[in-house]
Amino acid sequence: QVQLVESGGGLVQPGGSLRLSCLASGFTFSSYAMSWYRQAPEKERELVAYITPGGSMEYADSVKGRFIVSRDNAKNTVYLQMNSLKPEDTAVYYCRRSRFENYWGQGTQVTVSS
Predict the structure, then answer these.
(1) What angle do CA 12, 80, 111 make, to 5 degrees?
(2) Arithmetic mean of pLDDT over the chain
(3) Residue 21 near residue 6 (C-beta atoms within 8 A)
(4) What gap in Å lies between CA 65 and CA 44, rounded to an integer?
(5) How many Å separate Cα 51 from the centre of its chain?
(6) What secondary structure does DSSP assign to the chain, as a single string?
(7) Which residues pair with 49 in a beta bridge?
(8) Which residue among 6, 61, 65, 86 has the highest number of C-beta atoms inside a 10 angstrom radius?
(9) Which pLDDT value is given to residue 7?
(10) Cβ atoms 109, 7 nearer than 8 A
(11) CA distances for 4 relative to 15, 16, 28, 90, 106, angstroms
(12) Sheet of 46-51: strands edge to edge?
């Protein structure tokens, strides 16, 4: 069955960096777009970044120029490099298969605070 497992979250100071990973299994990873979402307390879950099977990328305006999504098809893994982190980036981050399917990881907490 489809499984998505995120890792790499944690506590970081404003201006710092983190790299999230999402290890996929149970499907042909290279054939699917993958996306990263986040959900802050009392807010709706929002799309952060998206990468197609061919490597084209899209970003939310709030993270453009700071976050980079990438994938390693040999490792069945999608990454989210987060730089210049701000307190408003604090959220639980989820990976998802495509933008339309109901396959989600369990989430990883990112807290940006001094």
Answers:
(1) 25
(2) 97
(3) yes
(4) 23
(5) 10
(6) --EEEEE--EEE-TT--EEEEEEEESS-GGGS-EEEEEE-TTS--EEEEEE-TT--EEE-TTTTTTEEEEEETTTTEEEEEE-S--GGG-EEEEEEETTTS--B---EEEEE--
(7) 36, 59
(8) 6
(9) 97
(10) no
(11) 28, 26, 13, 21, 8
(12) 10-12, 108-112, 91-97, 34-39, 46-51, 57-59
DSSP-assigned beta bridge partners for residue 58: 50
The residues with which 93 forms a beta bridge, in sequence order, are 38, 108
Residue labelled with tokens 């307190």: 87
Tokens coding 50: 């998206």
Query: What tokens appear for 43 in the block?
Result: 């807010």
Rg (CA), the chain: 13
* pLDDT tens-digit readout, 80-100: 999 999 999 999 999 999 988
The residue among 58, 66, 74 whose CA lies nearest residue 19 is 66
